[in-house]
Design a protein that fits this description.
The chain contains no helices and eleven strands. By secondary structure, the protein is mostly beta strands. A four-stranded antiparallel β-sheet has the order 1-2-3-4, with no helix packed on it. Strands 5-6-7-8 form a four-stranded antiparallel β-sheet, with no helix packed on it. A three-stranded antiparallel β-sheet has the order 9-10-11, with no helix packed on it. A hairpin with a 2-residue loop joins strand 2 and strand 3. It is globular and about 45 Å long. The termini are far apart.
């Protein structure tokens, strides 16, 4: 894997890497970067595990195609950890060098930028799926 690693997160024994070349996952039991599987192309700046939903959150550049690919900051997206399928992409946020955190099912993004826009955003407020003996599928 010929890329810079910006951040990493662990979920279900796998290591997810946000890199300059994309989002990679090292399967459980892997012993080096040669085993890395590319899941998403392009720069991925941050990654976080959402254990309650079995997914990985990552941030990448958001652009406006109608504005001639002008950068808009980042967008947080979600990948199903088992299928590696993209499940959701969020609204662009006016931050750079972002960090994503999942705190008890609440997703927060913080980063840097210029101007009066907030540098911390709460991007998910719904509760995680229920677990336990009374949980319904």
């Amino acid at each position: 894997m010929d890329a810079y690693t910006f951040s990493a997160a662990a979920l279900d024994g796998e290591l997810w890497l946000a890199t300059s070349a994309g989002l990679y996952v090292l399967p459980a039991g892997a012993t080096g970067s040669a085993a890395a599987i590319k899941v998403v192309d392009g720069s991925v700046f941050s990654v976080a595990a959402d254990t309650a939903r079995g997914r990985v959150l990552f941030g990448g550049p958001a652009t406006a195609t109608s504005a001639g690919s002008r950068a808009l900051g980042i967008a947080v997206a979600a990948i199903d950890a088992k299928t590696h399928k993209l499940t959701k992409t969020g609204t662009p946020l006016p931050v750079g060098k972002e960090y994503i955190a999942d705190v008890e099912g609440q997703v927060w993004v913080g980063g840097s930028g210029t101007g009066p826009a907030p540098r911390v955003a709460h991007v998910r407020a719904d509760p995680p799926p229920p677990h336990g003996p009374d949980a319904k599928p």
